Amino acid sequence: MNEFELTILGCGSARPSVRHLPSAQVLSYRGKLFMIDCGEGAQREFFRYGFNLNRVGHIFISHLHGDHCYGLIGFISTLILQGKTGELTIHAHNDLEKLLAPSLEYFCRSEVFKVIFSPLPVKGGIIYEDKSLQVTAFPLKHRVPSYGFRFDEKEKLPHIDKSAAEYYQIPLKELQAIKEGADYITPEGETIPNKKLVLPPSPSQSYAYCSDTIYTPRIVPFVKGVTVLYHESTYTEEYSEQAKDRYHSTAAQAADIARQAEVGTLILGHYSSRYKDEAQFLNEARPIFPNTLLSNEGMKFRF
Amino acid sequence: MNEFELTILGCGSARPSVRHLPSAQVLSYRGKLFMIDCGEGAQREFFRYGFNLNRVGHIFISHLHGDHCYGLIGFISTLILQGKTGELTIHAHNDLEKLLAPSLEYFCRSEVFKVIFSPLPVKGGIIYEDKSLQVTAFPLKHRVPSYGFRFDEKEKLPHIDKSAAEYYQIPLKELQAIKEGADYITPEGETIPNKKLVLPPSPSQSYAYCSDTIYTPRIVPFVKGVTVLYHESTYTEEYSEQAKDRYHSTAAQAADIARQAEVGTLILGHYSSRYKDEAQFLNEARPIFPNTLLSNEGMKFRF
């Protein structure tokens, strides 16, 4: 059931802090690893938590501010040093390639490993798809073009109704076809319609990541109903003016997005380095959206 | 007396390790901060130890491998974010400017702060000088052009011989001129020669940093007699073949350089991430050069 595992590598903001690292996350899904943002130091955390470098094929960069992408060059260098082969696709703003390509060419030559840049569509859209997962980018509102990412499990196959399967004595080899929609024909030639043999599939889970953004209800439809929403909350209410000036959100604003979007769980992060602890973020978010959690480096969320 | 203070920000090598950070040091001298190498994460350590960003004016990069320079872009971004004004000179291989300039232009625009690239002279030479300090670059031998740096206090002014000053009743306002070499003329017109009024100056201290290099006695004259030598020791004897193949040194080789150069203290660092602790480095170095210390993140050496 819990096929997503989200690991927080960094949940601080731009100014360095001893308490937090800049933005980076790893989302694991059925053996594949997706990195989301890659702030300075992400490579060290990636290996600290024992992730297998051969399982990471895609990195999603929300926007081109240093605290979200300065870790890329080091991460890629280390992938090569550790012998990774194949491809790594970086989904990011179009400008990233011209910024990173000279350093990749200089520091990261490899005959067996290739970096592919996949520019994010300006208005957002589907940017990744495999047989069980779909990733959509959607626009946020920040000082530079910034994107959120939504990971949706595709609709799953229905479960076999075990009592029906027993009743009709269906051979094992037929079950996959039935899950995929086939009717069952008995040895006597009777057709048992598919709907008599299956039960509804497990619900599909989903995750949305809203990196740097000012509060805007335009985000709501993009994150509607997700199982888990990570939404930046750089400031508490005390600094709401600063949040607006700097195109960031407060904890209460993140909670308001979660409430409107009817998500399952809200995770806060991207804390300003001015805070000595984050208790106040929870105090301000929970009255608006009770199911709110604080992120911290090393935390894992399974859903 | 102890005017140099060396702080180790990172003493690991290229592969990320949870035990160490990549190469970076801060050398403090009379209120000025000199950064030596700037591996990923150096900015966080710089602020962790409370250094004042307005005091750093020069960074010396030994060579263009990522574990010695990937922290530059983040460090500079943060200097700007924190409001640093004036200039920062980066002394490094000529290629660095073309690699870093596009990112500086994109991420680090400032009207009041400027980065200056100062290419290291190919054969080495004096690269920095002020009234009390001189910095010399000298060639090491690695897979890419690599340089060591030597910091020498210039000869200091002599001390006033207090008993002589008292005997001749020299007014306080004359003392600086005497320190600078003047004779003293008494109210009666008698000339007291300078050498009767002064005692030898305190000895000048010095520091040399030998980053990535294969063992080569050609280093010896460049680091001759320094107070403190930091010399890379990526490997222990067990991996001496690998050291040679990768153009690195063992602890014993670093100690041999220190012994030949008759330095005061040897500090080892740039440990391969394969080691779970570094005791064996000391075991192998001290029989050759007893006054050997291990570096570690956060350690400070005063001399």
TrEMBL record, chains A, B:
Residues the record marks as active site: 67 (proton acceptor)
Binding residues for Zn(2+) 2: 67-68, 212, 270
Catalysed reactions, semicolon-separated: Endonucleolytic cleavage of RNA, removing extra 3' nucleotides from tRNA precursor, generating 3' termini of tRNAs. A 3'-hydroxy group is left at the tRNA terminus and a 5'-phosphoryl group is left at the trailer molecule
Enzyme class: hydrolase
Keyword line: Endonuclease, Hydrolase, Metal-binding, Nuclease, tRNA processing, Zinc
Residues the entry annotates as binding Zn(2+) 1: 63, 65, 142, 212
Spans traversing the lipid bilayer: none
InterPro entries linked to this entry: RibonucZ/Hydroxyglut_hydro, RNase_Z/BN
Sample GO molecular function, one term: zinc ion binding
Keyword Zinc included in the entry's annotation: yes
Cofactor binding note from Swiss-Prot or TrEMBL: Binds 2 Zn(2+) ions.
SUPFAM superfamilies: Metallo-hydrolase/oxidoreductase
Cofactor: Zn(2+)
EC nos: 3.1.26.11
Pfam families: Anti-Pycsar_Apyc1
Family matches, as HAMAP family: RNase_Z_BN
Family: Belongs to the RNase Z family.
Xref: PANTHER family: ZINC PHOSPHODIESTERASE ELAC PROTEIN 1
Quaternary structure and partners: Homodimer.
Role: Zinc phosphodiesterase, which displays some tRNA 3'-processing endonuclease activity. Probably involved in tRNA maturation, by removing a 3'-trailer from precursor tRNA.
Protein name (record): Ribonuclease Z
Origin species: Candidatus Caccoplasma merdipullorum
